[in-house]
Design brief:
Layout (H helix, E strand, L loop, with lengths): L1 E5 L2 E8 L2 E17 L4 E15 L5 H6 L4 E4 L4 E5 L7 E5 L3 E2 L1
Antiparallel strand pairs: 1-3, 2-3, 2-5, 3-4, 4-7, 5-6, 6-8
């Protein structure tokens, strides 16, 4: 069973291959997998979905078409590695948020 455990929002920095691409606004939903029998979190199993929108002139369509490996450094110090799922900035992956 998946439970919503966090909904980070804010403005962060977007990087591609270590190069700063610009600022983005982000809105994410973080779901945690739970063992139904024990009602305990399954360590390391999270599902993250959401969206980024450029705060400047970042071309999301170009990043997606190239399959760019991206890093979002969030305003709270956490980071997320991902690829865009569509030209509108959609993110969906199984991973976990880590300290940057």
């Amino acid at each position: 069973m998946m439970r919503l455990i966090d909904q980070p929002t804010g403005t962060g920095d977007l990087y591609e291959n270590g190069q700063f691409r610009g600022a983005v606004h982000y809105r994410l939903n973080v779901y945690q997998q739970y063992d139904e029998g024990r009602d305990e979190a399954v360590v390391g199993v999270q599902h993250i979905e959401g969206r980024i929108t450029p705060a400047g002139t970042i071309d999301l369509r170009d990043l997606r078409s190239r399959g760019a490996e991206l890093l979002l450094k969030m305003s709270d110090g956490r980071a997320l590695h991902f690829q865009l799922r569509d030209d509108d900035g959609k993110i969906r992956l199984k991973d976990s948020l880590a300290k940057a």
